[in-house]
Design goal:
Distance between the termini: 54 Å
Radius of gyration: 27 Å
Largest sheet: 9 strands, mixed
Number of helices: 19
Structural class: alpha/beta
Shape: globular
Helix content: 25-40%
Strand content: 15-25%
Oligomer: single chain
Length: about 575
């Protein structure tokens, strides 16, 4: 039993049945034996003619029993959803059963989530005397088959409200269709590496593999997955006639937990009206050798583009230059919103950020594989303005002891080209900041720098910058700098050393000077502090807003992105 001062979330369990007298008692018993009080259990029967209903009525803990003809399993699922009032909903087939103590654990995991995440885990399945434990596959395997174990799903009711129920036109692959729709609505799936459900081979989808393959292909094509990849996969599965022919049982460890697990890196490219530069960026991915591309997942986030960017994306996907490409379309939410959308759907353990006007210069997979246990990889960058070389930016060396000193004084590297372990990024990019959005994100995710490795002599990316509306952008950065520094001072508060606090107070003063405002003399007496930042403060004090007219590197070299601006880390 959960011991907590917080109320237990109500959990609804749905079991569809039809002539299930041989297995139903075990299924129901696995639910009523759960040591969990805030539970409702709905049994949806399709008009059984055996002892199914008598068995169900012998269990008082079953909340409701409905018996009537239906239009298939999807219809039964949807009837159960309509009767469910719980915050979290699980579907348990009539020949499956839950692991002991599962619901209490699910409640704890749900309490730690954002309340909008599908929880799922392993299943143990039995077939003709074979006992096998199944984990999951990365999300990109949706091109092959269902990558997760639907019998283990626990879905927040709010997610069903967002995605909808199960499609009545699907009689076998309704779980695949629903999962694909959920992914396209950016629903997050969280894998828990524990056994949730014991699964008996013999359901309709298990017994009608070829028909199930056809429904999977229909769902893939209906939802816009690459038709060439999907049809090729379908042909291979039909030739082997096995539901998991192209997806042998995954290892019992969490997917991508080691370099041997397949895809290791998501390259996330946010895109907004980038028709002039996007093709150059996509072409730069050729720096990844062909034999490494199956270890890469490309995340192309179209952030409401109104130009030809979507057509460029479509042509690239259809070129099949990379086998695993996930496209996300959303209304414009700015650079932070686009990055967060990509992070929500990415399946690989590592992520590399790349802006849609920059160029990749290295094979990042090589570095990830050789530094897999690190927490982040930071490369040097060459900076070009209007195609002409301007400067090289080399990252400092980071450690758990110095990262806050460095990052309160400045943002010393471009986000484009930054590689990090996804699990280390707990705080997402803040949508409130139109510029400088990476600076607070790095400070609020200290685990990124537990084992950060800087490659000062390896140029990872080419950054392309140009100036547009310099004075307005300069003022915007000053305003945002004041806001971010103030927010960080409040949020980090007691965790800051005197030097780090002084650095942020000086950042706040520098932002006010950028706005042409005055600051009190005490602003120049903050010691200890970063000496370079201190010198910059005097420069800002002397030039104030006039600095925007000089367009020095690091002050006014920007690239516009709807609601966001690329700024040199040297600022």
């Amino acid at each position: 039993m959960i011991v907590s001062t917080m109320p237990l979330p109500k959990i609804s369990i749905i079991t569809p049945t039809f002539n299930s007298e041989k297995t139903l008692a075990r299924t129901i018993q696995s639910v009523v034996d759960q040591d969990y009080s805030n539970l409702e259990y709905h049994l949806i029967d399709a008009g059984s003619t055996d002892d199914t209903l008598a068995i169900a009525r012998s269990f008082p803990r079953v909340t409701s029993i409905t018996s009537e003809a239906d239009a298939g399993i999807s219809d039964a699922f949807n009837k159960g959803l309509a009767r469910s009032t719980g915050e979290l909903i699980g579907i348990l087939n009539s020949d499956d059963f839950y692991a002991p103590g599962l619901l209490a654990k699910v409640a704890r995991w749900y309490a730690r989530s954002d309340g909008q995440t599908v929880l799922h885990g392993r299943i143990r399945y039995y077939n003709a005397g074979v006992d096998r434990l199944l984990g999951v596959w990365p999300a990109w395997a949706i091109y092959l088959d269902l990558p997760f174990n639907h019998p283990s799903y626990f879905v927040p009711r709010s997610v069903y409200a967002k995605v909808g129920g199960y499609g009545l036109s699907f009689h076998l692959a309704m779980d695949f269709d629903w999962t694909l729709r959920a992914m396209q609505k950016l629903v997050r799936f969280h894998y828990v590496p524990e056994v949730f459900t014991h699964f008996q081979i013999g359901g309709q989808a298990s017994s009608n593999a070829r028909d199930c393959h056809r429904e999977v292909l229909r769902a893939q094509l209906a939802h816009g997955l690459n038709p060439l990849v999907c049809r090729s996969t379908f042909a291979a599965k039909m030739s082997i006639n096995s539901t998991k022919a192209l997806m042998p049982a995954p290892a019992q460890s969490e997917p991508a937990a080691s370099p041997a697990a397949g895809v290791v890196l998501s390259i996330l490219i946010p895109i907004y009206n980038a028709q002039a530069t996007l093709q150059r960026t996509l072409d730069s991915l050729e720096s990844i050798p062909y034999h490494q591309r199956r270890r890469v997942e490309l995340l192309l986030v179209n952030d409401g583009s109104t130009d030809a960017s979507p057509a460029i994306i479509g042509a690239f996907v259809n070129s099949l230059r990379f086998p695993f490409v996930r496209c996300v379309d959303q209304q414009n939410r700015g650079l932070s919103g686009a990055r967060n959308a990509g992070l929500a759907v990415g399946a690989a353990p590592w992520v590399m950020l790349l802006d849609a006007d920059d160029e990749l210069k290295i094979d990042p997979v090589h570095f990830v594989l050789n530094h897999f246990q690190a927490t982040s990889l930071i490369f040097a960058a060459e900076v070009k303005r209007h195609g002409k070389f301007l400067a090289s930016v080399r990252p400092p060396k980071f450690s758990p002891d110095n990262y806050a000193d460095v990052l309160t004084a400045n943002s010393p590297f471009f986000p484009s080209g930054f590689c990090f372990r996804k699990e280390m990024l707990v705080e997402p990019f803040d949508l409130a900041y139109r510029v400088l959005e990476d600076w607070p994100c790095w400070l609020l995710n200290p685990r990124l720098f537990d084992d950060a490795r800087s490659f000062r002599h390896v140029t990872g990316v080419t950054i392309h910058i140009h100036g547009q509306n310099m004075s307005a952008q300069y003022a915007l950065r000053g305003q945002t700098r004041v806001r971010i520094a103030g927010d960080l001072l409040r949020r980090l508060n007691q965790r800051l050393t005197p030097k780090q606090r002084n650095n942020l107070q000086m950042q706040e003063s520098a932002g006010r000077l950028q706005l042409g405002q005055s600051v009190p003399p005490a602003a120049f007496l903050k010691f200890p502090c970063d000496l370079v930042l201190y010198a910059k403060l005097w420069i800002y004090a002397f030039f104030k807003a006039r600095l925007s007219k000089l367009e020095p590197y690091g002050a006014a070299s920007v690239h516009r992105y709807r609601g966001s601006t690329k700024v040199s880390p040297a600022e």
